[in-house]
Amino acid sequence: MDSLEALAPLLGTRKQQDASDDRQHKRHKPTSTEATGVTQRELAMTQVIKAMANLLLNHDRSLQNLHKQDSFVIFARAHLIGMMPIMAVLAKDWKEKMPQNRENPQWLTLRTHLLKGLMQELLTRVVQISESQVGSQLWDTAVAKKTILPDGAWVYQKWSPSEQQLVQAQRAPMPMAQMVKTLKTLIAALQDNMHVLRFHSLRTQQDTTPWILQLTMRDSELWAIFNELTGNSVWGLLAMSLKQHQQSLSKQAQALSELVGKGKSSKGAGKGKQPPKTTSNASSAPPATS
To answer: What pLDDT digit, counting tens, does each position of 21-46 carry?
Structure first.
């Protein structure tokens, strides 16, 4: 009993100590970062990266919104009488003449030279149709392919998801005389380098190549002309179509958005991947030659 009484306090202290340790062990629960093996430093770095990604995405959206105010997209199909062969000839001509005009302040930049030459070719083909007679092969073919109406007006087109092609829109057609005047006004404005900021193609594996056309934001007249020609059947003469820039995010921003868990690309983004197919009136345009 003496031994038990002497040991009791010690045993009780040990028991109490064990209970205290158990309570402390139960109170301590590992944090989520400890459970997953992620340190506070890694967690903070992840948050910083996500914040930077969101900042970049917001910046890209702002740029795309600006492009909607000054940019257009031209979809050009690979066609023998279309836009691409013409652009190749214009670019070759510009490069051959560039060395002797390097110091000439009036020398047009390549982007302006390409756009001006393209519009001149388009005007040439429009004039050929306007000067043809009703009943001639050229006029009848243009009417049969719905490039123009029987009275010579140029129709506007829109994309039909159900038919998977361009169909006539309800917008009032543009008379032949007005079309000729509009194209002449456009060409007259392209006599210097003050209007075109960008005009270049994008890389694609498809038969249709998108070209980005960006105008100066102060050039309301030229923007109004291209806006008036958006969706018009006249572009079919060069196997191409024109629409306003409507992309919400660039391709790089779309990839970044998916990487940081923002889901699928925003509405309107990536439309350039599936450009509107040109109807038979574009791919089989009247065989007008320059």
So the answer is: 555 555 555 555 555 556 887 777 77
